[in-house]
Input
Amino acid sequence: MRQEVKEVLQENKNKEDRESEVFGELVEVVSTKSTSLSLLTSKDRDFLLSPTGTQVKVADLEGKVIGLYFSANWYLPCRNFNEILVNAYDRIKTSTGSQFEVVFVSSDEDLNAFNNYHSSMPWLAIPFSDLESKKSLNRRFDVEGIPCLIILQPNKTKDGAVFRDGVDVIYRYGASAFPFTEERLQELKREEKERYESQTLVNLLTNRDRDFLLGHPTLKQVPVNSLTGKTVGLYFTAQWCLPGVKFTLKLISIYHKIKETLLAESKDDDFEIVLVSSDRGQTEFDSHFNTMSWLALPFDDPIAKTLTKYFDIQGIPSLVILDPDGKTVTKQGRNLINLYQENAYPFTEARVELLEKLMDEEAKNLPPVERHAGHRHDVKLVSEGSGGGPFICCDCDEQGSGWAYQCIECGYEVHPKCVRAVENGPITDA
Output
């Protein structure tokens, strides 16, 4: 009898524990759900502001995915991201209706700056005057830098309610990231992995919303699949990058020489370049692209950031070469252009080996020591096997490898083609 009573008591306790767990989960969901909205209110305010100044009740956001957007007009990276976020927001709203909303949390310096910046946004905002709410949100989500986009999920438990990398996923996936759940992001990562494992030009350069590149004149649309069968250079650069501006001038000349040579020799292959821009705004991009003769990804396309990560671009300008099947030939296109000019085409390993042999033959006829007008000491001819190696030419500021003229004392190196020989005598310090 006593054993039966103990079993009944234990069963009741287990039942209570299960009910307590379920109740706890329900409380956590309700608490998280209500807390997300309560974060957007204050003791004296239960509304947000539209770009036109209209008051919108916070309660109207019930059940929506909310993006808390920490940003400021005075910071250029914020303004750049703002254009991309507006594009993604419009696409999400078009496809999902009212299931998504962004709330701007301003770090602007005054009311006029806030109003001007908010007028460029299609979403809601914490009133500029509510300093305490803005401070509270920054503390709550430990915002250390802007732009920052915190995603709040409705009807999620505590662990799944907050996603902090909104800026990164918007840059990377654009509107496709919605609803920003772990499941959706894992799905996108799998798709991305599959795309690049079977690397083709179409996989690299298109997304769900776009199957074209921009060309000239007037930004005409050029189908990506029209590049199939061509050697393609992905050119990562920006108008604000001075080395990029300098290299672009050289690349334009080389591009035309390669095209002219292929046409003159009536070869079946062809060469094209695609700009992958890091420009800071649409106007800057348009101005930059108009100086070029080739194609480009659209300015605000998330594929640009994906390509930068995929090819591990550490700095610009950078030129990645793809073969006619879309496979990577080399990430050293810029270096090969600097070394071999138009002769670098088609940039293959076999071509580079041939050019290196030719350079070795030419080096046999070069003076072992030169007096260079750009340096105060003699410079000595070296190769990778005799003290040389990859370097930045001190005369043209471009990359180099293989043969070079070097001053070990000063750490000074120049391309052989950059040497301006002078007769023995005093040389002005460089």
